[in-house]
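Page header: ASSEMBLY MODEL / two components / 670 residues total.
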Amino acid sequence: MTKQTVRVSLRDAMAEEMRRDNDVFVMGEEVAEYQGAYKVTEGLLAEFGAKRVIDTPITEHGFAGLAVGAAFEGLKPVVEFMTWNFGMQAIDQIINSAAKTNYMSGGQVRCPIVFRGPNGAASRVGAQHSQCYASWYAHCPGLKVIAPYDAASAKGLLKAAIRDPNPVIFLENELLYGESFDVPDDDDYVLPIGKAAVVREGSDVTIVTYSITVGVAQKAAEKLAKEGISAEVIDLRSLRPLDKETVIASVRKTHRLIAVEEGWPLAGIGSEIAAIAMEELFDELDAPVLRVCGKDVPLPYAANLEQLALPQVNDVIDAVRKVCFREEAA
Amino acid sequence: MVTPAAAIRKAKQELDEKKQAINPDNLLAMYEMMLKVRRFEEKAGQLYGMGLIGGFCHLYIGQEAVVVGLQDCIKHGDQVITTYRDHAHMVAIGTPMDSIFAELMGRELGCSRGKGGSMHMFDLENKFFGGHGIVGANVPLGTGLAFANKYRDNDHICLDYFGDGATNQGQVYEAFNMASLWKLPVIYVIENNEYAMGTAVARASATTELYRRGEAFGIQGRQVDGMDLFAVRAAGLEAVEYVRGGNGPFILEMKTYRYRGHSMSDPAKYRSKDEVDQVKTNRDPIEHIKEHLLSEKITTEDKLKQMDKGIREDVAQAVERAKASPEPDVSELFTDIYND
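Prediction written out in full:
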């Protein structure tokens, strides 16, 4: 194991796949000469040259469509959106062209492409730069959707995404880029898409989450342990396909479930988790499923309001206490 | 100094030379293809009226010279991509008619096994990449096909078709910019049939010389009489040579006309019957070539009648095969969503 940042792990994943397959190329705004707006593509231009590491104009709809066309021809583009907020300009090409063409063509026209970039809130960048698109893309058949938390998942799943013959949405998080985690010393470290990870075992309650709130849930679980509540934390890692089995197996053990995410509550990933519990775990539950989500507001700029709008450790602790019917600790 | 009149004379002379260069057998084959496209579309219209085709159905009748003329200019392995008005492109590219009819009817024999329908048809074997239902979306897609050619360093080009209506979509210009910046081998073919659904070009476009829409990006364009197969082919050959030569994209604005409504559900009240009749009488692309074939004694009226009869029979048989095909198996509902 080597301790390395999520940023470097993502870069290594792309570099390894580019060495392995000449059809893989990276395009996006500032990915080459600037080395990436968040330095995720640092060093790629030097190693692979301008043919395979391509700076685009600021033209998300256009270059997303162009990359989908290149993927129809069998190339394997990795498209970086400087943030997923800008990717919204390209959402028609992602859904109508990338996700649906395989089906509409009866399996003739494939689209092996990865769209990646930072998703969700960063820090004090206001409503237009702070939005979680997880449930938007997870809604759509034809796409695979990945939202890793730690560096090993980021690396193993990005490599899997690049090798996958389907369009993959890869949701990163800016605040995690600089965080360090253990990563296996293996230049062929590939994780299966659609497999969740139990990142902390517990027996009293299951906390299902993904991306940056995995960290929030782990901190909450540590504090809850001191209150005598044993929380199991599941990092979904993939949102489509969604690893129902891991969630179900955990709740069969804990009989309590909360879902934590940064996205808005209505029709969110948490809502889907609650629906799975309703359909598959009705008789297993000892308490209603609760969701801890971003508040139902555009993300405010003011520091105090921003903090209120995003799920905090205490929000998770409160929800867990509720489903465990515990009074607040004195 | 070359005067404008002299330039026009020279251009006309060159065009005449290119007409001459068409081998009579080739011209006859292109005439046959135009007629096949028309008979196909007439039949599609009938089948729609009979309730055998569902949803939307956009016919190409009147525009045949564009797709047939340009198809003659490209070579095997070049890509074609277009909008939802796509039946003709498939017929011209050589997709079997029964699989197109079957797709229109939502049958198993269809080129997409009934899962795409009229607007979403594909024939990858013949490098036909659809069949796209969102106006303007196929313009960046086709630019991406051209990007792949350049990435692979082959000499293939992409014909990227779209209508006059799409020329006001922002993503078209995003694609133009990148195609010119990166010198991608793509020909943008604007099928200007004068109406974007029911809106005449001048009612929607601040500038109506659509072939000039690439000027801001340094892309050359040419306006072509899209009702004249000779003109289409001559301009197509020139554009193909330019683009295949590594000079970047080119725009061909084909001035054409659709005889039918935007789709089968459009009674076309936004234009007069007289306007349509005038074009049918004076500018019909098939009649034009027919007159040439007869006046040049390349063939006879009788032989052309025989040809038409043969096409009608082929079309009728293709329809029968399509009708005989069952609807897709219910298991098809969940196939082709993901590849392993």
